[in-house]
Amino acid sequence: MKTVACKRFEFSAARELADRMQGHNFSLWVGVAGPVQADTGMVINMADLKDIVTNVLDHYDHRHLNTQLSVEPTTPNIARSLWNDLSSRLQLDSVELAEEDGEAATVTETAVTAILHGTFAAAHRTHAPRLSDEENLALYGICDNPAGHGHNYRAQLFLPPGQTVDRTVWAEFDHKNLSVDIPDLAGRNVVTEAVAELLARRVPQAGRVRVYETPEFFAEYHRGDANYRLGRRYRFNAAHRLHSPALSAEENQRLYGKCNRPEPHGHSYVVEIVIKSPLDPQTEAAYDLGALDKTAVGILGELDYTWLDADVPAFRDRPSTGENIACRLWEQFRAALDCEVESARLWETPNNQFRVVS
Questions:
Q1: pTM for this structure?
Q2: Hey, which end of the chain has fewer CB within 10 Å, N or C?
Q3: What does the alpha-carbon distance between residue 84 and residue 118 come to, in Å, rounded to a whole number?
Q4: What is the arithmetic mean of pLDDT over 85-102?
Q5: d(Cα 25, Cα 99) in Å, to the nearest integer?
Q6: Cβ proximity of 139 and 288 under 8 Å
């Protein structure tokens, strides 16, 4: 189990690639790993993380990156440079850099990965051929309608830096009925897992492929791994006050700032649970999403529209930091589900994120 605190930053820069000057707005997630301190409930003080990264970004923001970097300023190279600049100052877990509506890259201690995006609009029917009509209707409800339904799919291809993809790959899927028009999906239950696996076959240089059916649900195929990942997002609203009984009043104020005010404040929290499982041979899906949703309703219902510190026993004696909430969710989902939970991720705000990974 590893806990990571992440903060989002933005910067704007110019660069010249292939003899063409261009400019981009970039978003950057910096993740710091470490133990959650019992007295503070933090991996790192977000104010300290902000100061360190902001100082480093001065060398990137509103700069001509060809003059700032010793390498060609591709997105993976910029991300790698940021990692190098930050790793001596922070216990880094990851750096994730994305062009606005463009390419992205992630850097960890062991790998640099380029991420290419694609979109397509398509219809499909969720129907498992090995199940009876009655079983399909009970499992999938209106998604089993023979007329089909559709989505605006968004896909991510995870590639070695420098690899290219024929952009026409999306044409095979765009404005098609996947259950009818794609021969390789004929006779199959066209769940998102099947779409991700087929895209991986079409793009063999991709080590993994993630397909978002909706903004709240994705399936991910990893080459050479029988397990698929399914990610599901949920929301809850709660009030809290950051205060540690292990610290003095002065220490609490200094550490948490306005989050330590006597009156509570609150957030619209976003939770992402990623599970890991092989395909069920009967349904051709990795997990029953209805069962996952039912579990989430029970767990998150204990937090929704509450004052965490007063109403939830788990936070009466420890601060309700993002790290502690994420760890609590990780423990609860792991105990409740009959599959492996790969990660639990919590967005406290659009710029502050906390995740627990196996």
A1: 0.96
A2: N
A3: 29
A4: 97
A5: 6
A6: yes
